[in-house]
Design goal:
2 domains, NADH Oxidase, 9 helices, globular, four-stranded antiparallel sheet
Length: about 325
């Protein structure tokens, strides 16, 4: 049995989960619409997307973010008993449509799907130091499997020398970015000192970087750390990658990224994303070569036990759901 289509009420509930996805600088570059009983996910061209999403990387940042939102949509629709059939880049005449979700056969959600959906509101990037407690092997395996389930790969960087080498690569990429006045201006534009529906609140930006830090941080705030609260000397660092670097590959990687992050959240782990080595072409190529993996690195993550990160704001549903058939989606005006 195939359902006839999603309703506006189902769309609204699903989008509430979708907008909790991560995005670069919390730019939230997505829009959703109900069309012919299915849900289209689009890149929002009216958003001031980060420069990294338009330079040599094209729509990399938007594709990863929209892919993560698609994964949250899938979880929410599965919880409704209406799992989706997903087509990526379904319209050759409209590249801004990154995915179309159509109703499949009704099914009872699995416990794993419900657990991941329950983790959605608790997933926040944590830019704070983590505790020295090691992540158990079984949990590491779950993270690797989460990426594999979505058609991506996750390489765990193991060993002091390997982690230090990646740290040096990340710092080198960060220095290249910080020499660009446009990049510095962009960070300042996305740092929020007061109420706003997007961007990174200064309190969520983490402590100011210090010379001994193994991994770089973006300067979203000016908060200093407490004495003795250095970052962990050997964090669990993971590199997420995809088979290629097409739009479909990136959207696939975004879905895998969100499954990994939600799996980490469900395991009571904290995580933050480190994309500087991806944003600098030479650093990305060096990372790819060092890993010796087939495919393209799409994101670097720091994972461990620590304090949960601060939640970042989200735009109202009315700002991300398009009208359809000339009528506003119910419930999106509040």
């Amino acid at each position: 049995m195939i359902t006839t289509g999603y309703s506006a009420a189902v769309l609204e509930r699903a989008v509430r989960a979708a907008i909790r996805a991560p995005s670069m600088h919390n730019s939230q570059p997505w829009r959703f619409r109900l069309r012919d009983g299915g849900i289209d996910v689009r890149v929002d061209r009216d958003r001031p997307l980060p420069a990294a999403g338009h330079g040599h990387l094209g729509d990399w940042a938007a594709h990863l973010a929209c892919g993560a939102a698609v994964f949250n949509l899938r979880l929410a629709l599965a919880a409704e008993g209406m799992p989706a059939r997903v087509r990526l880049c379904p319209d050759p005449d409209d590249a801004d449509v990154v995915a179309r979700l159509e109703p499949g056969s009704p099914a009872t959600p699995s416990p794993a799907e419900l657990d991941l959906l329950a983790a959605v509101p608790h997933r926040h990037s944590s830019r704070l130091p983590f505790f020295p407690q090691a992540v158990p092997g079984e949990t590491r395996w779950r993270l690797v499997q989460a990426a594999r389930t979505e058609g991506a790969w996750l390489e765990l960087v193991v060993g002091t020398a390997a982690v230090e080498a990646l740290g040096q690569l990340a710092h080198s990429a960060n220095r290249v970015l910080e020499r660009d006045p446009g990049y510095r201006d962009e960070i300042a534009r996305w740092t929020r000192g007061g109420p706003a529906p997007d961007g990174v609140p200064a309190r969520a930006g983490g402590p100011v970087a210090e010379p001994q830090d193994l991994l770089p941080q973006r300067p979203f705030g000016d908060r200093t750390r407490a004495p003795g609260r250095d970052f962990e000397p050997e964090p669990l660092v993971a590199v997420l990658g995809s088979a290629g670097d097409t739009a479909v590959d990136r959207i696939t990687a975004g879905q895998a990224l969100q499954r990994v992050l939600l799996t980490a959240t469900d395991a009571r782990l904290a995580a933050s994303m480190l994309s500087q080595p991806i944003e600098v072409p030479a650093a990305r190529e060096r990372l790819r070569t060092a890993l010796g993996r087939f495919g393209i690195p799409q994101m670097v993550m720091r994972i461990g036990y620590g304090q949960p990160g601060w939640p970042t704001p989200r735009r109202h549903l009315a700002d991300v759901i398009d009208d359809w058939d000339g009528a506003a989606v119910p419930g999106t005006t509040t």
